[in-house]
Amino acid sequence: MPTAPPPPFVPQMQATPFAVDPGAIRGCLFRYTYVWLNNGEQFWFFPVFVGRTSVAGFRWFGFFWAYFGIDLNRIRSFTCF
Questions:
Q1: In whole angstroms, how large is the CA radius of gyration of the chain?
Q2: Nearest to 61 by CA among 74, 45, 78, 37
Q3: What is the CATH number of domain 22-80?
Q4: E strand intervals along 4-51
């Protein structure tokens, strides 16, 4: 789990023309990652595991990190730092 809060800003969404694939998001493992979902939700995430169809890690809920997993097909875009 991250030991500090995420960066204090919201990055601009990057255009992602195709579905998010495991290889692309694998480069964000153990890094602060901002995620935009297809349903409009957006949040800081700290991925620790990437599977074939899903990613798991810790989601920032404003004051704390909590374990969280999501299917890759629900992610519209992401960017990591």
A1: 11
A2: 45
A3: 2.30.30.100
A4: 33-37, 42-50
